[in-house]
Amino acid sequence: MSDMDEMDDGSGVVKKFMFLNRKAPHGTVYALEGLEVVLITAAFDQDVSMVFTDDGVFQLMKGIDTKGIEVKDFSKTYRALEGYDIEKLYVDQASMDARGLTEDDLIVDVTVLSVDEMANLMAEQDVVISF
Amino acid sequence: MPMVNIAGKEVEVDEEGYLVDLSQWNEDIAKYMAVEEKVDLTESHWEVVNFLREYYAEYQIAPAVRVLTKAIGKKLGPEKGNNKYLYELFPYGPAKQACKIAGLPKPTGCI
């Protein structure tokens, strides 16, 4: 079946979307824009997972203070995801280890995955979008 | 961006009339916004407006209407956490109108 056919009768189609977050929360707009895309996607009742890897794990850190750089601290917004029915949050074990972080340092509950587990999860997705 | 004078204070609003700096918000601004939106503020309206301000303080976003409805239901009971109740209070969209009155930005994904 082509993509077009799927779209024609596609009102009930649920795809697996993965949003991959790789960058530190501030300094670029990727993290905030990625989060906004996820919040919008939630309205379409899709199967959404979020992955945090590389410097992306810093997005979920507790106790972020952005006063000194005069930008909005949106880290609390990750705690609103549950209300948007986005509950599949994954972090990469190696990225956490390399930065000296544990689950206790994070503002939301996550599932920590090894590289192999992450690769399997990615292989299951219909769409992977990287920020 | 446009400036409006509300109860003797100059405040900045965006092109759709939403307050730019939410720390400036006060009840006079809420009343002004309500007049703009043709909403007659009652206790029931204030309950939703105050709920939105608390939600924003906690999560730093204005919730989508579906999320607002669910969260109101949880906090204030199912007789308030439904579309009929909220649309009766805010006929042009509870998220859109109530957020404006609460001094919050327009909800993400709200067109």
Question: CATH topology of chain A, anyone?
Answer: Hypothetical Protein Ychn, Chain: A
Let me know the largest β-sheet of chain A. Answer: 5 strands, parallel
CATH architecture of chain B: Orthogonal Bundle
* CATH architecture verdict of chain A: 3-Layer(aba) Sandwich
Q: Helicity range of the residues of chain B?
A: 40-55%
Question: Mean pLDDT of chain A, as a whole number?
Answer: 90
Total count of strands of chain A = 5
Q: Rg of chain B to the nearest angstrom?
A: 13 Å
Question: How many domains make up the 3D coordinates of chain B?
Answer: 1
Task: Count helical runs of chain B.
Answer: 5
CATH class category of chain A = Alpha Beta
Secondary structural class of chain A: alpha/beta
| Termini Cα gap of chain A | 29 Å
Major beta sheet, strand line-up of chain A = 4-3-2-1-5
The H/E string of chain B reads EEHHHHH
The assembly state of the depicted protein chains is heterodimer
Secondary structure blueprint with pairings:
The complex is a heterodimer of chains A (about 130) and B (about 110).
Chain A: H1 3-8, E1 16-21, H2 30-41, E2 47-52, E3 88-92, H3 93-98, E4 111-113, H4 115-123, E5 127-130
Parallel strand pairs in A: 1-2, 1-5, 2-3, 3-4
Chain B: E1 3-6, E2 9-12, H1 27-36, H2 43-59, H3 65-76, H4 83-89, H5 94-101
Antiparallel strand pairs in B: 1-2
Could you walk me through the main structural features you see in this protein, from its secondary elements to its overall organization?
The complex is a heterodimer of chains A (131) and B (111). Chain A has a single domain (15-130), classed as DsrEFH-like (Hypothetical Protein Ychn, Chain: A, 3-Layer(aba) Sandwich). Chain A is 25% helix and 18% strand. Chain A has helices spanning 3-8, 30-41, 93-98, 115-123; strands at 16-21, 47-52, 88-92, 111-113, 127-130. In chain A, α3 links the parallel β3 and β4. The longest helix of chain A has 12 residues, at 30-41. Chain A is globular. The two termini of chain A are 29 Å apart. The mean pLDDT of chain A is 90. Helix content of chain B is 49%, strand content 7%. The two termini of chain B are 20 Å apart. Chain B is globular and about 40 Å long. In chain B, strands 1-2 form a two-stranded antiparallel sheet. With 111 residues, chain B is mainly alpha-helical. Chain A binds chain B through residues 36, 39-40, 42-43, 72-74, 76-77, 79-80, 83-84, and chain B through 58-61, 63-64, 66-67, 70-71, 108-109.
